[in-house]
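Action item from last week, closing it out:
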Amino acid sequence: MSRINPVTRGIALLRDFFRLQAAAGIVLMAAAALAMIVANSPWQGAYEAFRHLPIGFSVGGFSLVKGAEHWINDGLMAVFFLLVALEIKRETLSGQLSSREQMLLPVLCAIGGVAVPAVLYWAMNQGDPVALRGWAIPTATDIAFALGILALLGSRVPLGMKLLLSTIAVVDDLVAILIIAIFYTHDLAAHQLAWAGAGVGLMLLLNWRGVTRLWPYLLLGAVVWYFVLKSGVHATLAGVVTGLLIPLRGRADDAPSPLESLEHTLHPWVAYLVLPLFAFTNAGLVLGGLQISDLLASVPLGIVLGLVLGKPVGIVAIALIARATGIARFPEGMDFKAMVGLGMLCGVGFTMSLFISNLAFVSIGDHFGEASVLGVLCASVISALTGWVWLRFTLKPGKD
């Protein structure tokens, strides 16, 4: 039996990844649009009832009952963060972030694309300490949404652009995870955190003993998720820790990778169930009574400026500096105009921006929450449209 060439296999996996992400982006757009339609229709009451539908169980003195929105944001999104952690680990150990030459440009671009939006948001809200809680909202990039836009451009898009966009988004996700862990953790319950730490310790022991079966890690991950949920740290971080502790390699050199197997299994579930449910639950902004002045308020305007202006400025400026100093070079098939278009598409924050918005303002009240959702939706639409139009007229048609 002839063995498949590793390069051929790698290209096939990349194509499958981009095809899946692009389709997921389109489904995500549809879910967000449906949420907006339902929230502004006679079915608004049913929509709100679904969001707050109590789901859970009670056994004796043990009870775990939450609304559907909380299960999606704290539970299903933990699966999304598990997948993100798997991607980060794979990229770091064997992918685009595994060598200095490959990782330097996307890491630098991601840093610029996080710092400039945060500064712009801070400048717009520096007089309001409550509004400043949302400084991290415009720092994220939604890879599925952005690749969905690129898919609409067909063969015009060079592979190097897709790879760079994906890698920037992975680094963005890593930064977002650190931000959530450091800045959006409160009221820690030490004993619950200790039990979560014990679960993590057992997963480390499994790593040390060379255990490559997935079920012990996933079982312990579920236990860690429960205690993290009760500890005050956001529950989705349990998914991150679990993902980082899944072994990359099997016991034998030719054995399937546990990490890649789980990543392959989770991708379609996250793409076509978890993220669309999250979008449907969190993007249902009621438009009745909204005026232009609402968009010009400091919170939504800071988000729009951060994503629409800050993302491309930060990414392109850092990329140009890196190229001029010889630190890094643009990927094959990309020039300055293509980099500008990529920077615009990175302004599509959507999923992670909505998630951070929920963390920042969920305990404060509807006003800030609705204002931030308005900013995220407007910024993501503007970035998607301007990025598509710019690339449509600057990229040369390729061969199908």
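Closing note: DSSP finds 15 helices and two strands in the chain.
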